[in-house]
Amino acid sequence: MNSNILVQAKDLVKTFHGREVISHCDMCVKKGTIYGFLGENGAGKTTVLKMLMGLLTPTSGKIEIGGGDLRESYPSILKKIGSIIETPIFYEHLTATENLALHLSYMQLPKRNIEESLQLVGLHQAGQQPVSEFSLGMKQRLGIARSIVHCPTLLLLDEPINGLDPMGIRQMRELFLTLVKEKNMTIIISSHILSEIEQMADTIGVITNGRIKKEVTISEVKAKTPTGLEDYFFNLMKAGEQYV
Amino acid sequence: MYNLIKLELRKTRIRPYVWASAIIALCMLGMLYTFSAVSYMGSEADAAEFSSYYNIMVLTNALIMFAFSILAAVMFTAFVIKDYSGKNAIMLFSYPVKRKSTLFAKVILVTTFTTISLLATTFAICSVWGLTESIFPLVDDSISILLVANVIRDALCMAVISVGIGLVSVWIGFRKKSVQTTIIAAVIISIAPANFIVLGTSYPIASVGLAVISAVAGVLALFDLSNAVNKMEI
Ligand SMILES: Nc1ncnc2c1ncn2[C@@H]1O[C@H](COP(=O)(O)OP(=O)(O)OP(=O)(O)O)[C@@H](O)[C@H]1O
Ligand SMILES: [Mg+2]
């Protein structure tokens, strides 16, 4: 396998109660890049991300992370993965700092980076506040802090900017770009906010009906559709695979 | 494993259960004196069941077992059912820890707590009762080494039965990830053993037999539960 590739999914299938939700999905994510994972509601983004971190077992197919089979390195591989799957959840009676400390203990790591991570998501003043007093957006920010506090190599972010204010959205975009550049992280991010994805992703994967319909670099998108990702996405949805 | 148990204690507060155990202990002490009073005041026929220390202890044990089975079930809902429901499970399963290890840490914690608090309750109420009985006896009986040995044996049996019932209840409640189902299961399941324990006034071996059955049922429930957790999809 190409050592440039961090995540590779081959021929993934997932059925729920006999209904094939993910059908023969292939995915390839290069190290040190941001992979924008797009698709309509119910297309299968969350399901694929859950399979990538072992929350769901694929009905068939193969997932490799860092060149090794996910099943073989599970659950120790989770030490290297940070994630937000849908809205993050916390131990509400604990403070933000305690929640992150607990997370680090479970990751079998010393309690460091907590302050720094809170700072990065703009929550440094709320560290001692119980999470039960947090707003939706603050929880989302804390979820991002938790996903990076253990310095993972792979970040799986399922709609991480939901509920953030405009400043927050921009801060998080800048944060994700910095993490890739300075900490050499690889990020898979699903979002419906195409303008954001356009500004950070290196590669776009579009999933429809449980299948990756298209995997293209952002420069290919721009070459094909100078008006931007949104138009590209709509054209692709309308025209199908012929839209190269 | 020790670390995982410590982490559980950071996530879920144990203090309410310490209070609950203390309240149970007070109620049980009240029962002991109620039974003693019946023995003191009742006519020969009324008081037959309450005529000896051992018989009074057996009756109290049935109540202790009932109370601690429910306490164990309530703790299992807090430590197991809630943590494996919905999004909590996503959080729990994103840690690089074997799923079975996390579950065992929870079970060890609840088992240890239930056992210790049940034994402490029995010890505390027996000490108080034994002391007052040696000063102002209500029951026409004497304390012997054999009595103490039997009470200790039965207390250990009650601990095993309570944990067993707790495990079977959480196994039932886990299918639907339901707090109510778990607690209702514990209430229903403990009624039969409570009646059976009372037989101990005539057949002291009843509790031991029941403890063996509960231990087997508890281990089977735990085994199936850990497989369910391992296969869980969220
Ligand atoms: N546990 C489940 N049982 C049955 N069907 C499921 C389950 N989880 C997901 N699905 C189905 O799988 C399909 C894909 O769902 P998924 O959550 O992956 O979509 P998504 O792309 O994340 O959508 P959204 O943009 O709305 O978040 C949907 O049709 C959904 O109904
Ligand atoms: Mg989704």
UniProtKB/TrEMBL annotation, chain A:
Keyword terms, alphabetized: ATP-binding, Nucleotide-binding, Transport
SUPFAM superfamilies (UniProt xref): P-loop containing nucleoside triphosphate hydrolases (SSF52540)
Domain ABC transporter stretches: 7-234
Record flagged with keyword ATP-binding: yes
Organism: Aequitasia blattaphilus
GO molecular function: ATP binding
Protein name: ATP-binding cassette domain-containing protein
Short name of one Pfam family: ABC_tran
InterPro entries tied to this protein: AAA+_ATPase (IPR003593), ABC_transporter-like_ATP-bd (IPR003439), ABC_transporter-like_CS (IPR017871), P-loop_NTPase (IPR027417)
Gene3D superfamilies reported for this sequence: P-loop containing nucleotide triphosphate hydrolases
Keyword Repressor attached: no
Family of the protein in this entry: Belongs to the ABC transporter superfamily.
Lineage: superkingdom: Bacteria
Automatic annotation (TrEMBL), chain B:
Transmembrane segments: 16-36, 56-81, 102-131, 151-174, 181-199, 205-225
Alphabetic keyword roster: Membrane, Transmembrane, Transmembrane helix
Listed Pfam families: ABC2_membrane_4
Protein name, entry field: ABC transporter permease
Species per Swiss-Prot/TrEMBL record: Aequitasia blattaphilus
